[in-house]
Amino acid sequence: MGDAIKNTEKTCEEIEQDLRKRFRKSLWCRFTKAITQYDLVKEGDKIAVCISGGKDSMLMAKLFQELKRHDKFPFELVFLVMDPGYSPANRQLIESNAERLGIPITIFETDIFKGVFTVEKSPCYLCARMRRGHLYSKAQELGCNKIALGHHYDDVIETILMGMLYGGQIQTMMPKLHGTNFEGMELIRPMYLIRESTIKAWREYNNLQFLQCACKFTENCITGEDMSSTSKRQEIKLLIKELKKINPFVEGNIFKSVENVNLSTIIAYKKDGVKHHFLDDYDDI
What we know:
By secondary structure, the protein is an alpha/beta fold. It has one domain (12-227): Rossmann fold, CATH 3.40.50. It contains 10 helices and 8 strands. Helix 7 (153-167) packs across helix 9 (232-246). It is globular.
C-alpha cells in the first residue's frame, strides 16, 4: 500500500475496483473467509448492515455490496443508520459518504445521546447497549433476521486482553451471537478476520474521511486518529504494540488462545450460566 494518496476524489466505481484488485487479498478474501468459516450468511437471509459512520462499518457496507454482486445465493441487504443524536455536521458527513460510496442508507432517529449524556457511571457501556437494542428492534421491524456489525480482528484480540487484565475473565468477542431479547434475530461480525491497519490503508488510499467516534462526548473528533482522553481499549492497543516489538506473533497468538482452550488445565469455567470447577470430578478417576 505504498502508493501516495491521490488528491483527486475517486469515483465509487474506482473505489469498488480497488476492493476487487488492490485490496482483494487483505480485505475481500478475509471478509469472505470469515463468512465461510463462521457460517455468517445463509440463503434467504435479510441482513441489516449497521453503519455508524466510521471507517469499519462503511467498508463493511461496500464489502457486502460486492458479496451481493457475486449472487451465489439469494439474500437481502438493508444499510441501516441509526442517528442517536448526531450533530448536524456529523449527520451530513455520514450522508455524504454514503452518497459518494453508492450506499443506499436507511436512517432512523433515536434520542440515545440525550438519555446518556448526564450519566456519570459507565455512559459508554449504557450507550452501546441502548444502540444495540434499537438496531435489533428496527432491523426486526424491517423484516431482517440478522444485524451485521463492523468489529474487526484488532477489536477481538483487544477484547480478549481487556477481559483478562481488567475483568479477571477469559472471554472473546464472538463472530456471531443469537439475539437474547429478540427472538429469531442474530448478530454477525463479518469483519472478524480483517486487520484495522488494512482498513486504514483503504481509507487513506481512497482519500476518505469518516467519523472517528459516534459518541456525543467526542463528536468534535470527526477525522482525528488520536483521542484526547485515554481509554482502557487504548491502553490495550499500546500494550499489544509494545508486546509485538518483543514477539511479532503475539497478535495471532492472542487470537488463537481462545480457539485452543484446554479444559483439563482450567480451574473453573462457566457454561450456560453454570459454573464448573475442576474439583467437581477430580476424585472420580
